Amino acid sequence: MKQFIVLGLGRFGSAVATTLVELGHEVLGVDINEEIVDILKDKITQVVQADITEEKVLKELGVKNFDAAIVGIATDLETSILVAMMLKEMGVKYIIAKAQNNLHAKVLKKIGVDKVVFPERDMGARIAQRLITPNIKDYIELEPDYNVIEIEALPEFADKTLSELDLRNKYGINVLAIKRDDVLNISPLAKDLIKKGDFLIVIGETKKITELAGKVNH
Question: How does pLDDT run across 29-52, given as a tens digit for each residue?
Fold first, then answer.
């Protein structure tokens, strides 16, 4: 018997969770929607209502103690990526994530998600029966219209918060993580300070990121 955690209990997540229970495994299901949690409370080993975008919540749930984690979010690309990154950083043994499209899938694969699925092509009940583990780690690179890249912070970014820099409005990019001395700050807060020598992992339109990267290189 194995133990699984399913994050996001929409149609896909609930199908995976209930099938795993039917196959004789233990499942912890997590969703922010109280109604969904109530519906599934008698169908899954344990269900909790929680905001999985909070790093401390994932730690409290003990995600790294499970044999595998299934990320059932797909409609919000940024949230899906951030949750997957946090799970990877916390040392989860095997991660499966639902993708909305090919671009989303490429990001998930590049950040180390072990298996990316498209519910339309792979039903949750089938996925639940194929949980085995390889491991991938790479920097993130996408094409043609969007990119996720690691760049060194510009000198003028030093000693300013993300809120002060307002990179979304100025450059059309979102900061997914800040790397300082090989320590990764996943899903940084608006109040987090950028220091000289920091590296930023950002997502945005390729032309916008190229423009910013050009400033870094000069």
Answer: 999 999 999 999 999 999 999 999
